[in-house]
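Quick one: structure tokens for this chain, please?
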Amino acid sequence: MIDAATVNASRYTGIPLRELSAGQLKTIASSTTPQGVIAVVRIPAGSYLSALPADPGNRIILLEDVQDPGNVGTMIRTAAAFDFSGVLLSRHCADPFAPKAVQSSAGAILIPWIRRGEGCLDALGELKSRGYRLFCAEMHGNTTVGFADINRIVVAFGNEGSGLSDRLLQLADCRFAIPMKRHSVESLNVATAGAVTLFAAFRRSGW
């Protein structure tokens, strides 16, 4: 039985509803324990192109070769939570619209604009020409960083094993690391590092 809130949302948005049996839901769901609602959604236009939106917004994240779709989806969810307007992904990143990435985003996949493909660094170059500053997460970067006076920013995170490429690091205005007790833990998961950093940027603070 479809609950009243879902029915009302359907009427308000004009999105049609169809009630399925438990067996039908299990057949088409990608997860073993679906939450009871499945949506068929068109991938936003331009998501696999290199051209930036007309208005990219002031805060953007860049993911270079992040392999785990769960990390990609979590980063997109975090970006949406902390008012980052867009996500640039290199061609070798996990597909942001893969089932695990979409599930990890908890629906936030449709909030920021997304661009994934070969033109990732070209788009970054265009953003820098417009006055965006590039902050790169690097294990051996500066452990003091501040976001208070940064109006336009791109924050970059790299591959789970190798980090960011030298080519991208050479474009950085700031290379930063999150301070921690390294004798206990060598590094943070990229999605965790992203959450710490994007929260600080959202609050215009730092460490």
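The longest strand covers residues 133-142.
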